């Protein structure tokens, strides 16, 4: 059976992550595994550094007090984590998801993704995390790290769920874009949806050929597809199409360049995730 990993953290995005996971699971007859990760600051296994001008007796007493405080903090974090998972499980059950598993983990989110993604077919995560300040262009601190580290498709949930009917695939002919087209053509979650293929750039013979091949693959799988090539800057053209066509989901390849190159020339992936108010599905 198809399995969807849904990472929740108790933030405002957790409900949306659950709702999008439920939508995907319902259309693909998939199971959902809910994962909540307790960060290192919520654990009690790292001793404090008390070097300095503290007397030996005072230092021992303070160590004991801090150890007790850490233990209580860890216990509260564990209880809160289980509550977050229980509430999310109930939300999925109410949405009709039959197969639901939960997992509470310690450590780093990226490490958790690496450890548990093996048997999953897709990962759903919120755009921003619990610690985000919700500034307009702020991205969750873990999001890019997760996308770059994972080998699975990543579904980045928007702030609020709405039914998905129209899908835009930003297609540049690269490996990740081809992977996206292949996945969409085979995934029952996309069955019956309105699929738009968009290539941004000059109308070269090569671009037309690759776009036609992608369109043929999707149509061969039974999808209703329209395809076009539009000149311009990818960020601006994609954003304009999303608004003009009432797109509900953007599908695109993710981070085709290194972090260093992205710092120099920018990243279409990051810009689209920042600016989009709709969910984004990413492939590497």
Describe this structure in words.
There is one protein chain. The protein has 284 residues and is an alpha/beta fold. It is 44% helix and 20% strand. The chain has nine helices and ten strands. Strands 3-2-1-4-5-10-9-6-7-8 form a ten-stranded mixed sheet, sandwiched between helices. Helix 4 (143-149) links the parallel strand 4 and strand 5 (154-157). Helix 1 packs across helix 2, helix 5 (175-186) runs parallel beside helix 6 and helix 7 (234-245) packs parallel to helix 9. The relative contact order is 0.14. Mean pLDDT is 84; it is low at 42-48, 131-139 and 257-266.
Q: How large is the count of helical segments?
A: 9
Percent in helix: 40-55%
Q: What is the residue-averaged pLDDT?
A: 84
**What is the string of helix and strand elements?**
EHEHEHEHEEHEHEHEHHE
Overall geometry comes to elongated
Beta-strand percentage range: 15-25%
Q: Report the major sheet.
A: 10 strands, mixed
N-C termini distance: 23 Å
**Estimated structural class:** alpha/beta
Radius of gyration from the CA trace?
22 Å
Number of strands: 10
The largest beta-sheet arranges its strands as 3-2-1-4-5-10-9-6-7-8
Q: Uncertain runs with pLDDT below 50, 5 residues or more?
A: 42-48, 131-139, 257-266
């Amino acid at each position: 059976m198809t399995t969807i990993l849904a990472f929740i953290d108790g933030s405002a995005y957790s409900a949306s992550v659950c709702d999008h996971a439920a939508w995907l699971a319902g259309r693909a007859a998939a199971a959902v595994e809910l994962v909540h990760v307790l960060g290192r600051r919520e654990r009690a296994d790292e001793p404090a550094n008390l070097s300095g001008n503290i007397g030996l007796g005072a230092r021992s007493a303070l160590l004991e007090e801090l150890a007790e405080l850490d233990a209580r903090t860890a216990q509260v974090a564990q209880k809160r984590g289980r509550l977050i998972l229980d509430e999310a499980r109930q939300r999925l059950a109410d949405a009709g998801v039959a197969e639901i598993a939960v997992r509470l983990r310690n450590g780093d989110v990226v490490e958790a993704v690496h450890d548990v993604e093996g048997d999953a077919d897709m990962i759903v995560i919120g755009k921003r995390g619990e610690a985000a300040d919700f500034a307009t262009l702020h991205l969750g601190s873990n999001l890019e790290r997760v996308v770059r580290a994972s080998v699975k498709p990543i579904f980045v949930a928007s702030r609020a769920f709405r039914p998905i009917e129209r899908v835009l695939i930003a297609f540049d002919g690269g490996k990740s874009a081809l992977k996206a087209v292949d996945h969409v053509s085979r995934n029952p979650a996309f069955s019956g949806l309105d699929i738009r293929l968009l290539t941004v750039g000059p109308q070269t013979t090569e671009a037309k050929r690759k776009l036609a091949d992608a369109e043929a693959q999707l149509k061969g799988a039974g999808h209703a597809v329209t395809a076009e090539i539009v000149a311009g800057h990818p960020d601006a053209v994609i954003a304009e199409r999303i608004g003009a066509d009432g797109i509900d989901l953007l599908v695109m390849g993710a981070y085709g360049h290194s972090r260093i190159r992205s710092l120099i020339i920018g990243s279409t992936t990051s810009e689209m995730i920042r600016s989009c108010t709709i969910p984004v599905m990413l492939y590497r």
